[in-house]
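Hello K.,

You asked for the raw outputs rather than the summary table, so here they are, unedited. I folded two proteins back to back in the same session to keep the settings identical. This is the first:
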Amino acid sequence: MEMIPSLVLTLFGTWMATRGSRLIAIVCWVLAILAMLGVMSYHMSDTLPVDL
C-alpha cells in the first residue's frame, strides 16, 4: 500500500510528459522518487521479525 503514491505519481508524470507538460512531469517524477525513498528508508530501518 505504501508504493501506491509513487506509482500514481509516476503514471501521472508519464501522462503529462506525453501531453507535453514537461515541468509537471518532472515535478511528479521528483515527488515519486521522494515518496519511494521515504518508503525505502522506513522499511530498511525496521527491525527484522525473523531470527537469523
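The second followed immediately with the same parameters:
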Amino acid sequence: MCILASKKIEPEDFKEMKLDYSVKMDKMEAKLGGLNHDDVKIKPL
C-alpha cells in the first residue's frame, strides 16, 4: 500500500480500512448511546 506516492488507495486496502473503521465507529456509537446526557455538566466560559 503506497497511498502517499500514488495518492490512490487500492480497492483491497480501502475495503480493509473501511471494515476496521466501521468496527471502531460501531464501538464509539455504542459508548455514546450509553451516556446519559443529563449528567454532562459544562461550565460556562
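The radius of gyration is 18 Å.

Happy to rerun anything if the numbers look odd on your end.

Regards,
P.
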